[in-house]
Amino acid sequence: MPILTIESTCDETAAAVIDEDGQMLGDCVATQESLHEQFRGVVPEVAARAHLERILPVIDTALRKAGIRPQSLSAIAVADRPGLAGSLLVGVTAAKALSVAWQKPLVAVNHLHAHLYACQLASDIDVYPCVGLIVSGGHTSLYHCASPLDLRYLGGTIDDAAGEAFDKVAAMLQLGFPGGPAVSRLARHGNRTAYQFPRSMIHEDHFNFSFSGLKTAVRYAIVGPGHQDFSKLNLSDDEKANLCASFEAAVVDILVAKCVRAIHANQSDRLIVGGGVAANEFLREELENAAEQQDFDLVIAPLHLCTDNAVMGAIALEKIKRNEFAKLDLDITPGLQRGF
Ligand code: KG4
Ligand code: ZN
User: Fold this and answer.
1) Which of 189, 163, 187 shows the shortest CA–CA distance to 275?
2) CATH code for the domain of 16
3) 182 part of a folded domain
4) Could you list the residue range(s) of the whole structural domain that residue 75 is in?
């Protein structure tokens, strides 16, 4: 029997119906990009209110697309961590209410584990054990993944996430929100060596990342220290493209170097990569090159499963196999201890 999965950790309201083999039968994602664009970032209060309006229609749509009635579901899964508190609360409360109303067991899913599980959904082989990179708007972390649910934190960002840096650079260049796709589009026409931006900690023998210095370096390259008003800038398209290309090259160099280091340190032969920034074309190309040169297997989440979605909530099937159900007192866990 299929399961219903619900995702509302940040600014996408999503639901999906997944059969017992992990096949998606129907899904729906309501994006909030247009609501947050004017603020050039996600506003938690706005996100929570929008989830509240959308969650039931989104669930209805997923069920309708799948042609499944609630009675036919075997469980209801929901991402309970990590994320914005107000956003998480809407999904978790809806899942608990439906679990009671429809008398279905509840399963709690870790959103980060789910991002990596998107790689398993795209693969014919069992991708675990492996090294996993999650690179998104809120997270940039490396794990050793013994199984979908047994992850050991290797390291992560000590300040901004990579996606956040993309969004901030896009905001400086007035490219709209979310910034990743816009920066990436412009970068294609730019010179990746036009600016020598810093690659913080790239040679250090650990798995932590830092992107805030890079963000500041881009800012100084655009307006110089102390200058605030980005709206008065009059950069040519070529200048913008060079800034984007050089910034993207720095982010990608750092991510690839740390992944390769983690592969070697863990004597692993496979890397899996998930999260919104995994949609980045240049990152995907450079990871492919590294995999070929360093002889490891690479599985990157398919494009449609990189940014937040409920299909990756199929990881709930792994919890069901282990008999790991949540109780009705399930609470949200917005922040994680480093790594979990
Ligand atoms: O996984 P996600 O939807 O949300 C979080 O869990 O954080 O990731 C969203 C992030 C945003 O920062 C967005 O700018 C970034 O992913 N992103 C990209 C691309 N597409 C989305 N960054 C770089 N290149 C892209 N093509
Ligand atoms: Zn996410």
Assistant:
1) 163
2) 3.30.420.40
3) yes
4) 3-115+306-321
Of ligand 1's atoms, which has the minimum distance to the CA of residue 308? 3
**What is the 156 CA–ligand 2 centroid distance (Å)?**
15
Same domain, 38 and 81: yes
Atom 16 (ligand 1) nearest CA: 276
pLDDT per residue as tens digits for the range 186-222: 999 999 999 999 999 999 999 999 999 999 999 999 9
Phi/psi for 39 (5° steps) reads: -95, -5
pTM of the model: 0.95
Atom of ligand 1 nearest to the CA of 275: 1
Q: Do 163 and 270 sit in the same domain of this protein? A: yes
Residue-wise pLDDT for 70-102, tens only, equals 999 999 999 999 999 999 999 999 999 999 999
Let me know how long the chain is: 340
Cis preceding linkage at 2, omega within 30: no
Residues in the 5 Å CB sphere of ion ligand 2: 136, 308
> Looking at the domain assignment, is residue 339 inside a domain?
no
The count of structural domains within the chain is 2
| Closest C-alpha among 9, 274, 260, 333 to residue 148 | 274
- The finding on whether 14 has its CB within 6 A of some atom of ligand 1 is no
Residue 99, ligand 1, Cβ within 6 A: no
- Any domain includes 330: no
Q: Is the Cβ atom of 82 under 6 angstroms away from ligand 1?
A: no
Q: Do 287 and 256 touch, CB atoms closer than 8 A?
A: yes
